Amino acid sequence: MLHFLIRAAFAAFGLAIAARLVGGITYDAPMTLFLAALLLGLVNALLRPLLILLTLPLTVLTFGLFLLVINAAMILLVSRIIPGFQVAGFTPALLAALITGVTSWAAYMLLGDINRLTARNG
User: Fold this and answer.
1) How much is the pTM?
2) Domain-embedded: residue 101
3) 120 in a domain, yes or no?
């Protein structure tokens, strides 16, 4: 559970960076952004695997780049559900997917290091 919350914090950080750098992404308050990140984590855990399975041939044909489209769709879905978190269209969502992907990768690297450290000391 703690790792999920840490990953959500990194996702919120990525969404905040995206809102700062990409026109068309806005949020009302930091808590709104954190709620959007939590919902994004849930949507990615529940809905994304099904979408990946359904679009597998297209994903293979595009050498995995179609996964960015799926991630952008997940961000658009979250923006439709969470009031106060707005994404103006597909292009801002795609750029946000890139940015949150990089921050999520950084979180994975950091959490991987934390797991290795606790395994040695625990």
Assistant:
1) 0.85
2) yes
3) no
